[in-house]
Write a structure and sequence with these properties.
This protein is of the alpha/beta class. It has helices spanning 17-20, 40-47, 86-90, 93-106, 125-134, 153-156, 172-179, 184-203, 223-233, 257-260, 262-269, 282-285, 335-340, 342-351, 358-361, 369-381, and strands at residues 2-3, 56-59, 110-113, 138-143, 160-166, 208-214, 237-241, 277-280, 302-305, 310-312, 328-329, 387-388. Helix 9 (223-233) packs parallel to helix 11.
Length: 399
Amino acid sequence: MLQQQIDPGKVKKTQRIVLNKDPEIINGLLLDGDKLAYHQDRVQAWQRGERVAPITIDMALTRACNARCTFCYAMLQENILESFQEDVKRQTPAVINRFLDDAAEIGVKGISFVSDGESTVHPYVYDAILRGKKNGIDMAMGTNGSLLKKERLREILPALTYLRFNFDAGDPKRYSEIMGYGEENFHKVVDTIRACTKIKRERGLNVTIGLQMVFMPQFKDQLVPLAKLGKELGADYLVIKHCSDDELGSLGVNYREYKDLVPNIKEAEAVSTDKYKVIPKWSKLLSEGKRVYQRCYGPPFILQMSGSGLVAPCGMLFNRRYEDYHIGDITKQSFKEIWQSDRYWEVMNHLASKQFNAQKMCGALCLQHKVNERLYYLKEHGVELPKPSGKPPMHVNFI
């Protein structure tokens, strides 16, 4: 439980909506909110002006992907001229190991292979998971699952905090239409998910096996079928999240339509049982894509890296047109050196300055959105972080 201390006089009534209700922990999972309250020491160091290591890093081992999802933000993120397949040659085992060792040394707590590519394209992904875990880092992965090797599951599942399958339909035909590849992949991934949940049960593993639906309004017919499929497969949860769009509206997401679909989403949510939860990210789905903050304070705590090796504050800034925000490349320089560099902190400080306005210069509902909200109220309105009590939620190092 998070015990929130709020001075109502410090924030406007319309801004207190986010703060008046603590993030809900459902079956141990906190998926619609942030977990900064469980990292008070790092937040306090940041407030003192210290250079803090990221708590969480989302990254990919390549930008290549075997799917062509209609909702894919990564298609808007291209950042270098080389072929995506060249990423595997540049992101060598030596480069990846150096990064994982650096991350552990500077104090990164969680790394998820979730970014602008399908990391299972890279043959070293399994060994990278194991090395990160051996280094004391919580490891996780998001994947479409079609290339995941069943023979490696028993090896990697004990080393993962969560394994999340990007899975947008409960019907093979609609799955093929939405995910952009053949129906045979629907059946293959279903078999893989089933194998994962079986291994988890048999070995009593702590890893959570989840499904994620990147929900666009035109997918409403798949909400309930997918919710039922997740339950049938023995998954721990299905999360229904918004679709992020860039500042140009390139994917054409109409965020106002989500409010009209609340009954459909609630019908899917009702499929939940004691052991399986359908969890809509209501705070984002109903936000109409709007931000209350202008400064971007989140990247020092939750950093994103491209499958090309590019280090940038967030995925929305991977594209070449945002080169002014690009910091370094782990295929050319160690991550520790990049993190220690003046360039890293110049970019981070610029995002947190009055020269940057996330309401005008960013796409909608980024990965750092909930962390940004929390830090905005702390930094600009003096609203302290909640005081945790009781057992922390799962995935606590994935903020």
